Amino acid sequence: MLIQAIWWGAIFLEALLLIRGLRAKLLSRFPVFYSYVLFVFCEDLLRFWIHRWRPDIYPQTYWITVFLGLMMGSVLVFEIYLIGLSAYPGTARMARNVLLFVFVVIFAKALVNASYGAVWWPAKTTLELERNLRIVQAFAVISLITLFLVYAIPFGRNLKGILFGYGFFIAVSVIQLTLVSYFGNKIQLLWSYAQPVSYLFVLGIWVRALWAYQPTPGTIPAAQLENDYKALIAATNRRFHEARASLGRVVRP
C-alpha cells in the first residue's frame, strides 16, 4: 500500500513538473530534461498498468525501461554540461567528447556481455550497467560542480535545481547499487523503499526550482577557463609532435 502511494505521488509530481514547464515556457530551454521527465512519467504509468493487469511480463518490462531510462539520464548529463558551459565552447566540447566516449564504451560492453548470455537481457547485466553508468554520471556531475566553484561560473536557479536534484539521485543510486552488489537480496526490501522515496525528494527539488523561469546571472568573461583549455590543448599537441618526431628519428635508418 505504501509503495503504491509513493508511486502515485511520483506520478503526480511528474505531471505537475511537466505542466509547470509548459506554462513557464521552460520546455524549449531544457528539452532533454523535460523529455526525461515525460519518459519517466509514461514509464511509471506503463509499469503500474502492467503490474496490475499483466504481472507475468512485469520483470521484462521493468528491466527494459531501466535500460532506456539509463540512456535518457546519460543524455541529460550532456544537456547539463552544454547549458552550464554554454559560454565556454572549448571546454564544453572537450567535456562532451570525453563523456560520449565513456558512455559508448560502457553501453557497448554491457550489450556484448548480454549477447553471450542465455537470456538476451539478464537482470544482472542491467544492474552492472546501471552501477557503472551511475558512477560515471556521478564523476561528471562532481566535475561540473567543481568547475563552477573553481571558476566562479554563475548558473541560474533552474539549472542549479536540475543539477543538484539529479546529482542527489545519482548519489543515492550509487550507494544503493553498491550495497546490493555486496549484500544481494538481504537489502532488497530496503532498496524497494529507499529508491522511490529518494526519487520523490528529487522531484520536490525540481518542482521548486523549475516552478518559474529564472534567468541565469550574467556570465563572467570566459578568459580564464578558455585559456586553461587552450593551454591544455597546446600542451597535448606539443607532446604529440615531440613523440612523433622522436618516433621518426628511431625509425629513420
Task: Briefly say what this structure is.
The chain is mostly helical.
Would you kindly provide a written description of the structure presented here, covering whatever features stand out?
Helix 1 (2-23) packs antiparallel against helix 2. It is built from 8 helices and no strands. The radius of gyration is 21 Å and the shape is globular. It has helices spanning 2-23, 31-53, 58-84, 89-115, 123-150, 157-183, 188-209, 223-251. The chain is mainly alpha-helical and 253 residues long.
What's the overall average pLDDT, rounded?
Answer: 77
Order of helices and strands: HHHHHHHH
Beta-strand content:
under 5%
What integer value in Å does the Rg equal? 21 Å
Beginning-to-end CA distance, first to last residue: 79 Å
Number of helices: 8
Number of strands: 0
Q: How would you describe the shape?
A: globular
Low-pLDDT residue intervals, each spanning 5 or more residues:
118-122, 240-245, 247-251
Helix share bin: over 70%
Biggest β-sheet strands, sense, barrel: none
Q: Helix- and strand-based class?
A: mainly alpha
Give me the secondary-structure topology.
Blueprint: H1 2-23, H2 31-53, H3 58-84, H4 89-115, H5 123-150, H6 157-183, H7 188-209, H8 223-251
Helix pairs in contact: 1-2, 1-7, 2-3, 3-4, 3-5, 4-5, 5-6, 6-7
Q: Characteristics of this structure?
A:
253 residues; mainly alpha; 0% strand; disordered C terminus
